[in-house]
Fold these 3 entries.
Entry 1:
Amino acid sequence: MHPDTYVKSETGHISVGGVLLRDLALRFGTPLYVIDYETVVDRMRQYGQALQGWGTPYYAGKAFCCRAMVELVKQEGLGLDVVSGGELVTALSAGMDPARILFHGNVKTREEIRLGLTAGVGHFVIDSLDELRRINDMAGESEGAAVVLLRLTPGIEAHTHEFIRTGHFDSKFGFAMAEGIATQALEQALALKNIRVEGFHAHIGSQILDDEPFLANAEALMQFSHDCWERLSYWPSIIDLGGGIGVRYSGQDNPPQPGELMNRLAGLVGEWTPPGQTRPRIIMEPGRSIVAEAGFTLYRVEALKKTPGGRTYVSVDGGMGDNIRPALYDASYTCDVDGKAARTPSYAVTVAGRYCESGDILVRDAYVQDPAVDDLLIVWDTGAYGYSMASTYNRVPRPAVVAVHEGQAQVWIEREDWQDVLRLDRPLEKQRDLTI
Ligand SMILES: *Cc1c(COP(=O)(O)O)cnc(C)c1O
């Protein structure tokens, strides 16, 4: 709902990380992404402690990835999931130990695989037979085996938005634990000279608010492992249970506690381990639950409008370009008006973005405090899948990301300016000068 260091003054001014949001907006401009350092570090440590003795949390970089964030991942001793060459070079530029990087994604181009092999990433997570063969061939060229996990789909329907569900059988991800598909993939992988299979992975979706789907996922993976042991004498040394742990976007959300959940998962993995075999090390891949509640967005109110239907639109200087989640997933957020937060939020408004799409609505039917032009509007819990999904639609430059900590603010990602808008453009050439 709020970062841990959230403080509201009697006058209704809000500060986070010991910094007044009003001052941040004045100094860095709006729209502005703000990350509360303490909240991020706290969530990382919660996972570290929850998995102590069982395994390692790997932060899922796609939730929010930049150099400073990876440095924090490194500092706190987590591993890192990457899903692209871009995330991988970010990780390497931040000095992340490649052995603690896991390379995900249902498409890894040759160029990306080469980058991963050259850097020496710890694990590739294999998503298809074509990829398996490709990595085997490329690892052969560069001498030495690629260490992999196989991505499996357990056939679990997590109760979350269709677009963020990944565990069901007709998902584009992974090998189905049905019709022998996953078993055959394992057999093929075990037969390849330059592939070493360390274990299995399954990620069932995102923003999951109860323990049950996670337990069902672990159970399915362990059942599968058990079958592999009986039939192929193969036993995994790693079980990667993915991410997907939900966060509190509203007061009604009651997400799992990492400590409790990990205990139950680790217990289950232990129970399924055959006598004489080593209990597999557990990897969890939290993304959203590390960074969502630490982050929020500051917008400037630019216009108010009442429609004949009686709706009040509050239009702000950002929107789907910096946060596409409401348009993409129907995601909902809470918001506040800074400087008025001491008052009752009794005004029903719809917060509209500045982009040329009717679907560019940031918060639908929100209750806020008496908004006026030039007020600062705060949208909470935008730390995950906000900036990382940002675009330059309408040629609007992307906002800055600033971290706050103990009264100080530090830029993590610079704001784009008009120069950046034009940076990659080239003038139209005369036809006769074209060379292809
Ligand atoms: C997206 C993703 C995650 C992170 O999911 P969150 O919901 O952000 O915790 C972890 N693992 C895989 C494979 C993913 O695709």
Entry 2:
Amino acid sequence: MSDLLIMTPGPTEVSEEVRRAMSRKITNPDLDPEFFEFYLGVSSKLQKVLKTKNDVIIMSGEGILGLESACASLIEPEDKVLVLDNGIFGRGFADFADLYGANVVKWDFPYDEKININKLEKKLAAENDFKFATFVHCETSTGVINDAKEITNLLNKYNILSVVDSVSAIGGVPIEVDKWGIDIILGGSQKCLSVPPGLTFLSVSDKAWEAVNDRETPVRGYYTNLQLWQNWYEEKYFPYTQAISDIYALDAALDKWIADQTIYARHKKIAEAVRKTIKRSNLNLYAKNGHSDTVTSIEIPKGISYQELNQLMTESYNVMIASSLGEFEDRLIRIGHMGENCYDAKLYRTLKAFDHSLRELGFELNVELHKIFVNQLN
Ligand SMILES: *Cc1c(COP(=O)(O)O)cnc(C)c1O
């Protein structure tokens, strides 16, 4: 496992600096006043990434915890919640909203393209009495990225709060939470920020705080109750003991991210080169449009199974790429080119392994993927 290159769309590779940060001496995060200042500092670094003045809360748990917390804290039974579904994660939001008793209205959009804004606009003109709407920024299952700015603008026009799962986009593509007017956006540590799995974070607008507070029924949950986080700094109180070593790691990753002036340009350049490479070959990209600069989905050629491809790639070439979920399992392979994965040499090694493995499994590639990739970079 030691030199296995993890090119999945999360968890991503973790840098030496970040790993070292996790070994720092800890303190008691409930009692040490310095830890509260430290946590505030990490939160303000996340505000920089998200371009927001809204509160940013860091919670111990994976991305799903952020998603569930937003639903648990906002929803009262029978609240009307709009779920925009153009992928597996998008669809999954409906289950969480349902779990907390919402009256869920789900609008389906094709999975192989970004949400069509004109279509959404028409539907919203006809029905818009929603407390909030959810959508996924980057659908990690397919590599489709939605136009978060346009969608949020529309929702704001009708005073619908927005809850945006940006787990696999934050840090890899430009995001302007305040300018775009996003009420709750949530991320995870293990995607573009390249911290081990374990943390989720979310920003909460004043309007969202009002909705979280203005409830007639109590929040059905404790770990997922955002109300408990409102005055953590003033009261020097966390609802539970913080995962201090994970937060050390996040802090180190954020320092690295902030110092990297070329991060978005690098994601764009590498993602475009990967896509052009696939387009030049006799393989097919899954998405028709809305290609994310953080993850690419490629159709698995007929007659090859993900399992045998993965086994060959990991055992013979020490590179791991992912399959997809749900109905896409065994249909798509996904290469994560986000965060620490997003370097020319790592994509070169990945595409070379992919190229050789496909040939060994009997697929006749018409070009050499890694060589085409290099040409696309210039
Ligand atoms: C990774 C991810 C999450 C977190 O889910 P896990 O499958 O548990 O890692 C949530 N939403 C999106 C869009 C993600 O990419």
Entry 3:
Amino acid sequence: MSTATTLPEPTASKRPQLAHLTAVLDDLRAKGTFFRLRVLDDQQAPVCHYDGREVINLASNNYLGLCNHPKLIEAALEATRTLGVGSGAVRTIAGTMKIHMELEEKIAAFKGVEACVVFQSGFTANAGTVSSILGKEDFILSDELNHASIIDGARLSRAKIKVFRHKDVAHAEELLKEVQNEPGRKLIITDGVFSMDGDIGPIPALCDLADKYGAIMMVDDAHASGVLGRNGRGSVSHFGCTDRVDIQVGTLSKAIGALGGYVCGSRDLIDYLYHRARPFLFSTSHPPSVAATCMAAFDLLEAEPERIDRLWANAKYFQDQLRSAGFNIGGITTPATETPITPIIIGDGRATMDFSRALFDQGLMATGIAFPTVAEGKGRIRCIMTSEHTKPQIDKALEILTATAKKTGVGLA
Ligand SMILES: *Cc1c(COP(=O)(O)O)cnc(C)c1O
């Protein structure tokens, strides 16, 4: 029998090493923007259960309802049965399966480009690409509202970052002129659809700039994939700019319903990324089920374009009703929405989070978004319509929004 005395386990809260994190959380609590994660009890759907409560769900990126489409589920199950649950390695060592190559060929054909590479997520696609194609002599011209994964990729590249005002092409040109005679390469990068405001990037005008100054043109189409363009080919296709954009990024995690990100472009771009993009080299590839799911989703985009039509009809109806009820859905101090992303601008962070909680208590899941996801003072409830919401569900959501806004005195202009 041991005679050693057992020391009491030190509790995490008593160790001082991470006290600075606790201080940040205390500050969030004081500002009213601390949140707990809402937990989904069942499937991602227009009506589902979070934290045990039935809600109308306006918070997902499941634009086309593909997260639980029977054909996609069947494809995932079949791939799992025949190919297993994991790929076993990173792509460059032993983890490239035939199904990964098939998915990349399918996406390249869909987008009308030479080649495609799939990453583990849209985040790693952006960060891995931007960081690997540029170096410290180079320049990145980036819209101020571009996604965090672009910003992180830009920082990792060590290129000099020039941020232009949101969608301000003249400002982008001013910045380009300043560095025009520097030896480094220039990359112009924009979101196709901006994730927090739902407005569309000025792609043709930025392509003009890229052509004029010999800059590389890159578009992150995460929120446009499956939503904009013929059969959901994205914003670049929507504007007829496929031949003028060197690098197109898309996600498989939103409208496509599964998980992943992809980069489309020339064969050389893709071969280069095979050799240099760090998430590709150092992080394991998708399980075969994910690749199979995505292939089935692209088939569906071609076979059932009516889903995309329903999505846009629902979004238009919802936004028209919100506007006539007096909600500020952007366009005054923030950009106006042009896509199914529908921000209801509140402003103050605490008021935003309180409003979101009040909506939840009435049976509406609509997430409050505050600093640092959006700028301080630009808090909003972000609603995303899907093709699968029914009119009675949308009307009920509108009723809850209006009643809650009247009761709490926020949201209505
Ligand atoms: C969601 C999003 C990403 C990241 O995509 P994931 O596949 O979720 O990692 C990248 N860019 C933009 C603009 C996004 O909205």
